[in-house]
Specification:
This protein is an alpha+beta fold. It has two domains: 3-127 and 311-341, Aminopeptidase (3-Layer(aba) Sandwich); 136-301, Gcn5-related N-acetyltransferase (GNAT) (Aminopeptidase), CATH 3.40.630.30. Helices cover 30% and strands 30% of the residues. It is built from ten helices and 13 strands. Strands 1, 2, 3, 4, 5, 6, 7, 8, 9, 10, 11, 12 and 13 form a 13-stranded mixed beta sheet that branches. Strand 9 and strand 10 (225-235) form a beta hairpin.
Length: 342
């Protein structure tokens, strides 16, 4: 007989999925980076003997309501469910149970960022509306170093040669000894590019990020100045570029090109099979960040999002209250499912 529960501790369950079928984004340690006074990390676990379906997420209290209502959202990065079986009946039953219990727990809706490498969007297709969002790029680290570099665009290869000639040094910093330098570079970069508030994090987040056992820091140094830096994650076979930035006055030295290349080789030597660089800042094929990442690889993946309303009556009531509080919020028909959080 299948069983289910909701838990705030699920790392032990992840062990049953193996290195090919899970990733850092599904760990307690990572998702809890995004907890707040109103949001808590939680995981739905559905099992039938050895068959398991896991869905970790952030559960957040919904404003604009006298009742105790919530919504759920996957954390920054990628998420969604995991399953260690392809049994269609089991997977359908897991989704039915999830939908029913969400309603019982007062969860009115949910937004999911699925994992492009694991392609797990189908595991919620019965209860979520699945939408293609954008393409992402990843470097295949199973090939030898020369092949990896030969797959770079000619422009990228020239940029890397220029970086070396400029005397740039790559530093791998697993202990985060230079974290303050990274944080300053990252925040200044986000300000320079007029990034959305979504990409700014408080000091508590940064302090917790340093403690994450799956994270490490890498920096580019010119003479005595750190000119670029990034945090990477590695867990099992998968690695990800997480946060990064660079100083504007050193862009001509091509520090970011060297940063990605050297870390791809470092991760290869540490048994990672793929380095996921992510996508652009929007869905455009001409997005400059996407084009930059395409210079490192022709391996592309599709990033999907999922939207669901579990209690239409309460969801509409919350949206109306949000709009009435400020009639100028003409975005009532915004495609953003959790628009009332703004």
């Amino acid at each position: 007989m299948p069983e289910y529960n909701f838990t705030q501790y699920w790392n032990e369950d992840l062990v049953k999925f193996g290195k090919e079928h899970t990733d850092v984004y599904f760990t307690e340690d990572y998702i809890k980076l995004y907890e707040s006074d109103k949001s808590v990390a939680e995981c739905f676990v559905y099992s039938d003997h050895e068959k398991k379906f896991l869905f970790p997420y952030l559960k957040t209290e919904v404003p604009w309501s006298d009742a105790k209502l919530y919504d759920i959202e996957s954390q920054y990065g990628y998420g969604g469910p995991l399953a260690n079986t392809e049994d269609l009946a089991f997977l359908a039953d897991a989704q039915t149970c999830l939908h029913k219990t969400f309603i019982e727990k007062g969860i009115i809706g949910g937004f999911v960022r699925f994992h492009p490498l694991l392609q797990n969007e189908s595991l919620l297709a019965k209860i979520f509306r699945i939408e293609f969002n954008r393409k992402t790029v990843a470097i295949d680290l199973t090939k030898d170093e020369a092949t990896i570099k030969n797959e770079f665009s000619s422009m990228n290869q020239r940029a890397i040669r220029k970086a070396y000639k400029s005397g740039l040094q790559v530093i791998i910093d697993p202990l985060f000894e230079h974290f303050e330098s990274f944080k300053q570079i990252y925040v200044n970069t986000m300000r320079r590019v007029n990034a959305h508030d979504f990409y700014f994090f408080d000091d508590v987040y940064f302090e917790e990020l340093k403690k994450n056992k799956n994270a490490y820091l890498s920096l580019i140094k010119k003479e005595n100045v750190f000119i670029a830096a990034a945090v990477f994650f590695k867990n099992g076979f998968y690695a990800h570029y997480h946060l990064g930035g660079s100083l504007a006055e050193f862009q001509s030295d091509k520090p970011n090109n060297l940063l990605f290349f050297e870390n791809a080789i470092y991760l290869k030597k540490n048994d990672c099979r793929i380095l996921h660089l992510g996508g652009g800042t929007d869905s455009s094929e001409e997005n400059s960040l996407l084009q930059f990442k395409r210079g490192f690889s022709k391996h592309e993946f599709h990033f999907y999002i999922g939207k669901a309303v579990f209690n239409r009556l309460e969801y509409d009531r919350v949206c109306r209250a949000w709009h009435l509080e400020d009639p100028e919020k003409h975005l009532l028909d915004s495609p953003n499912l959790l628009k009332y959080r703004t």
